[in-house]
Amino acid sequence: xxxxxxxxxxxxxxxxxxxxxxxxxxxxxxxxxxxxxxxxxxxxxxxxxxxxxxxxxxxxxxxxxxxxxxxxxxxxxxxxxxxxxxxxxxxxxxxxxxxxxxxxxxxxxxxxxxxxxxxxxxxxxxxxxxxxxxxxxxxxxxxxxxxxxxxxxxxxxxxxxxxxxxxxxxxxxxxxxxxxxxxxxxxxxxxxxxxxxxxxxxxxxxxxxxxxxxxxxxxxxxxxxxxxxxxxxxxxxxxxxxxxx
Amino acid sequence: xxxxxxxxxxxxxxxxxxxxxxxxxxxxxxxxxxxxxxxxxxxxxxxxxxxxxxxxxxxxxxxxxxxxxxxxxxxxxxxxxxxxxxxxxxxxxxxxxxxxxxxxxxxxxxxxxxxxxxxxxxxxxxxxxxxxxxxxxxxxxxxxxxxxxxxxxxxxxxxxxxxxxxxxxxxxxxxxxxxxxxxxxxxxxxxxxxxxxxxxxxxxxxxxxxxxxxxxxxxxxxxxxxxxxxxxxxxxxxxxxxxxxxxxxxxxxxxxxxxxxxxxxxxxxxxxxxxxxxxxxxxxxxxxxxxxxxxxxxxxxxxxxxxxxxxxxxxxxxxxxxxxxxxxxxxxxxxxxxxxxxxxxxxxxxxxxxxxxxxxxxxxxxxxxxxxxxxxxxxxxxxxxxxxxxxxxxxxxxxxxxxxxxxxxxxxxxxxxxxxxxxxxxxxxxxxxxxxxxxxxxxxxxxxxxxxxxxxxxxxxxx
Amino acid sequence: xxxxxxxxxxxxxxxxxxxxxxxxxxxxxxxxxxxxxxxxxxxxxxxxxxxxxxxxxxxxxxxxxxxxxxxxxxxxxxxxxxxxxxxxxxxxxxxxxxxxxxxxxxxxxxxxxxxxxxxxxxxxxxxxxxxxxxxxxxxxxxxxxxxxxxxxxxxxxxxxxxxxxxxxxxxxxxxxxxxxxxxxxxxxxxxxxx
Lengths: 245, 463, 194
What we know:
Chain B is built from 21 helices and ten strands. Chain B is an alpha/beta fold and 463 residues long. In chain B, a hairpin with a 5-residue loop joins strand 5 and strand 6.
């Protein structure tokens, strides 16, 4: 099985360790991983800001980079959701459609395709899971607190396989962190307040790490944590699942 | 109490709201508590999601057949001996209502909660024409005394603390200064408003549901103010948006199971009153209002906003609404539903609202009629940008971004540049001109991008 | 062209493709302990549920629990407070302390009683009186509103309402206060008739 690695633009630029961990984890699980070196971005930042119509060239670039593979996997729920819903091409709709059908967020891929039951990883820390909105409500990575239905969480299941890890219960399990793309600067006051409140929830449960499937959320929370000179650190699930003894 | 939130767009107003962090915490916790009550109530009903689906389908059927249902409704209403009026605009609505009042030579009336009349600014119109209007819902009376619009469609004064209400009542109703006991204040309001009920000959109500097959309208309250007003009056005027129609009486069994639970977590409001024919000697009027609804019906992307039953659940669950307050939305209806309704009426004035969201999607999940609110917020952003309602700086920035991100060479170069600047000249980015930096540290620039790392460590052949 | 025509024409031009009406499904589970659930919910919402054997027992309860000096009014011939000729001016009921009326049936899931104008005497009575008592038969309780509307069917009432407990408001900082504009307290008498 050949998997093409789709690395979000800001992970490539600011958090390469998340991409390295994702690559390492997939290879450990026996997957042949390629990384199309000319990839840049899925176009989400522009689209969410109302500029979807400017993403034509970005889309074409994405399609040209990700044609050849069995699956496309990314350590980002929101980017994957965006591609699933918004990747289109006037010239190459068949290719776009094929891509939309085989693009997966990392924990989704591990659960639904690889059907991982056991992960050789050790992370002996108290961890809070931040439920990123697009992954949860868009990709159905876990049940949503608003819905009257059975509980499930692909991400939690995987974290529970990690040796030594203690997952806390939060007061508000799936409240948004406040990043929201350009929202984080256009509505700075509310964005920060939402982030501060999330941090407070985790901190009151005594976590050492906040984790999640989206580095954008974690980047926002980390910005607040470091401004507060907090001891709490952030770590993407890929880093935790790939943490060696 | 919102006086400092009177100017600017949502971002500016919510920035003012956030200056008082304790108050934001109080507002946020209060509304979250109501969201939790809604959850508890929903979980009492195993078939909750099935109810939502049925309600959604019923409302979609209504939108697809609205013409025929309205014709049928009018016919039944007239057969019931009730008057029907049609108003295309808020101005027409106000004139119709005033005309009914004027013909009866009445100068003071009572009104129970109606967001539709709020949308039409009815109170201002009537006051300007010499009619004294008293809003009888306690929350509405409070904001009326304070000369403010409501901040929430179901909980009009959720942004008021009891001490502030006590002070307001002391000024306007003569209650003792410093008394903020809710029991005492409510009793004072009861006495004050009872006098008014006894002497008002005309009562205006809203309409929660209008049944096409029977011509009856349903009004839901906890206080009983709608019923008390109507049953003591000579004339009942009921104002409704045309989308409040439901096809059959039995559909009320679905909607009334969803409405109060979604709104406040109660199984039902104290009173769910079905008005079909007025009592002998009483006159009843129904005013049907369009105000952009028939226009919105034409849009496949946005018509589903017309399914709304005005429960307010989306506001209670919205993390942004809770931390910005209803007045930040500067429209009669705030929160997620307000943000997809308002731009339809005036794109320029309300261009900020669809951006007052992180698109988290919680609203769509609590909506009892399954409106795709967060999808519509996204779609409105595209429409607003295409129509030029986004500021030029942002436009330029976005186009620039699109260019960089569609060109791998430029992307790598500008990324490297950014990281280098952040590492060696941090003050260029870590300053007061960078809105991110106000309350957050910037991410630490790594030595190399993943792309570079990969090429150095992993790349074998020309892949 | 009047506004009605303008509005209807605009709607017709909208071409909104609607879905067909769904078959109304219900939750099939459900035990027949409706009266018990009804009383439990009623008491949670500030009302009181009282089982009485017959009209005599009901009268006894009222005499023991309500002040003799207050004005008590009823539309029920079996009760001593029955008023055959009611004023046709609703304002005349302003001084009623307790109104005792019959209801049609109760709804277990929300503690509400369905009552229509033919049982109210005057439509103002259930709202203007300081306290309200409604009487239903103990076995006349349906599980949910869906069954309630099946039972109502096409009853040609002119005015009807579901009344769930006393009038209330939580508008002042979410503090629940009973007795906003309508009755401050509400009892449902469930006649067991045995």
